[in-house]
Amino acid sequence: MSNYFEFDKKGTNLKTEVLGGATTFLTMAYVLFVIPGVLSQVGMPKESVFAATAIASAVGTFIIGALAKFPMVLAPGMGLNAFFAFGVCMGMGVPWQNAISATLLSGIIFLIISVTGIRELVIKAIPNDMKHAVSAGIGLFIAFVGLKNAGIVVADPSTFVALGNLSDKSVLLALFGLAVISILMVKGVNIAIFLGIVITVIAGMLIGVVDVPTAVVSMPPSMAPTFGVAITHLKDVFNPQMLLVVFTFLFMDFFDTAGTLVAVGSKVGLIKEDGSVENGSKALLADSVATCIGAIFGTTNTTSCMESLSGIGLGAKTGFSSVIASGLFLLSLFFSPLLSVVTSQITAPALIIVGSLLCMSFAEIDWSKSEVAIPAFLTIILMPLTYSVGEGIAFGLLAYVVLMTCKGERKNIHPVMHGLSILFLIYFMI
């Protein structure tokens, strides 16, 4: 094992890798409760989603650790999860059964482009400024969803939105959770979100907002309600509306993974001289396989997670740390009774915090150029205001092509972008 993962060459040891893997798992453990909590709002059985999330995370993390030898954790992405629930199911009125089929199709496409090399073409086609705009827009979208779920922001017939009732116990609990997680992050606590959720749950029990669980450990929940649904409803995905959803899933998943690979790879010396990532194709393969498996079991797109840096910060440098985290994800299957205490007020602070982290991409956009600033702004602002990540992407990329063409920069627009703009026009006209 030491030779396979090259402990000596990487300057690490078994104890460090185990500790790093366990830390990364604890940093990411909140997704096991937040993902089911969000998806249950669109009718998906919380226990089945919990199991599917644990399995998808375990499989993807094991593959990227054992095959790509990358010290990284894979799990269903918060941005993708929020778009699935609030953008597709609630915003577009798509049944979750069809949406999970779209997830599977995006995973299959991602698998194909991961083994054929098409991914390089796709990466080059989308301008970097627009990639950052999408990330920032998703951040605002997730934060808005969190504020709404917490009751901090409510609907208003006159102004569309307004400040909620801050004297309500549930709202106060969400604000408490937001404060706790924020303080822990400022203090540099690696497991801030997970620990913040635990503290908020305890506080909720003390004030009578959260019920005390009747059990902590049980046998893994049944996955029958969601298992295989993505396959049986695959035929319902082939229409313009759902194909845009598939494209959005693919877009978000693809660039989330690519960006995280570069960020993590640079920390552990896995970036080659030509700028490529060592074993990058295998890492992308792990992501796509995990997405397919997760969709079949019943959860949203699985992607690489920046929280992996928490374990790396403690010295983890090899894929063995990921193998440890994978085993802990499987072990978590026996803790599904804890789902009963994770309400929307408990998960809302996590959504708000994750949204704020994604908004760091604002700084990467070149706001000095109108042909960039206007499409980027439209992408960002339309995601929360239309309650649709997909429509924000479509409107922004279409605006980019139009403005670049008007400026006489048509030659600098990748042909793939022209093709996408035509598809977006058709979508808006239907």
From TrEMBL:
Q: Which UniProt keywords apply?
A: Cell membrane, Membrane, Transmembrane, Transmembrane helix, Transport
Its localization reads: Cell membrane
Tell whether Metal-binding is among the UniProt keywords.
no
Q: According to the lineage, what is the superkingdom?
A: Bacteria
First-listed, main subcellular location of the protein, grouped into a coarse class? membrane
State the InterPro entries in the record. Answer: Azg-like, Azg-like_bact_archaea, NCS2
What are the TM regions of this chain, as residue ranges? 21-42, 48-67, 74-94, 100-122, 134-155, 170-186, 193-216, 242-264, 319-340, 346-365, 377-401
As for membrane topology, the entry says: Multi-pass membrane protein
Q: Which Pfam families match?
A: Xan_ur_permease
Q: Of which family is this protein a member?
A: Belongs to the nucleobase:cation symporter-2 (NCS2) (TC 2.A.40) family. Azg-like subfamily.
Q: Know the name of this protein? A: NCS2 family permease
Q: Which organism is it from?
A: Intestinibacter bartlettii
